[in-house]
Amino acid sequence: MNATLTALAEPNRLRIVELLRDKPRPVGEIAKRLRLCQPQVSKHLRVLSDAGLVDVRPVAQQRIYQLRSEPFNELDTWLETFRRRVSDRMDRLEDLISERKAKKEREKDHGH
Amino acid sequence: MNATLTALAEPNRLRIVELLRDKPRPVGEIAKRLRLCQPQVSKHLRVLSDAGLVDVRPVAQQRIYQLRSEPFNELDTWLETFRRRVSDRMDRLEDLISERKAKKEREKDHGH
DNA sequence: GGAGAATATACCTGTCAAGGCATATTCAAG
DNA sequence: CTTGAATATGCCTTGACAGGTATATTCTCC
């Protein structure tokens, strides 16, 4: 999970991922389209590969990179845990404040 | 989008976000639960705040931090664009290879 | 208004990662 | 087997960022 986020956090890597969203591409094409130097692209792809975000397929001297679905599914699952909770926050905040006040009252009583 | 990912990529910030998922909390409580120093927590919360991931509410000398829903919704929307595409990749890869071969044939014919 | 709690900020330091550049590797084709 | 294309890797430098510590700020309460 953290590996996925770290990999996606880098702007150029995000661009690469969004480019690969359309279809698999060889390194050179990615470099050309994003106007990046080839070594940098290879390095970014290495990071993405280590994070499990992409797969490689050799075709002649080319290496075709493609997205993998798992990390995105995991990210989606993780996001799910934020769905309803977030909409309930306001109420919970009120609860917290009430609790806090009540606690303070209790302490005050206890002190005397 | 990139701001969101960058903010979430840091392990301790991710822990903070996951802690806030349950309910809003003051700085001190976050520090205690995650066994982090208070200044570091404040700094992380600053980053999260700048990225729009959290809101603050002063209550006495405390500052109650809570998650905001927008960035998570945006992240979810972004993820949506990867849903179907990823499952189509295999076919597209085949297409790419076919195209590539066809192109090569064409070049060969043209050369002669 | 003085003391102490809760939090934010400033400064320093070390680490890590991204870019630039040169070079190694692998493969196709003549 | 030599050449050139496509890609990966190694080394170096630099900038950003996280942690540590001290200090500033803000509020409550007496």
3D architecture notes:
The structure is a homodimer of 112-residue chains. Chain A has 112 residues and is α+β, with helices and mostly antiparallel strands. The first copy, chain A, has 2 domains: 2-69, Winged helix-like DNA-binding domain superfamily/Winged helix DNA-binding domain (Arc Repressor Mutant, subunit A); 82-111. The first copy, chain A, contains 6 helices and 3 strands; from the N terminus they run H-H-E-H-H-E-E-H-H. The first copy, chain A, has helices at residues 2-9, 11-22, 27-34, 38-50, 70-80, 83-111, and strands at residues 25-26, 54-59, 62-67. Chain A has a 3-stranded antiparallel beta sheet with strand order 1-3-2. In chain A, strand 2 (54-59) and strand 3 form a beta hairpin. At the A-B interface, helix 1, helix 2, strand 3, helix 5 and helix 6 of A face helix 1, helix 2, strand 3, helix 5 and helix 6 of B. The structure holds a DNA duplex (30 and 30 nucleotides).
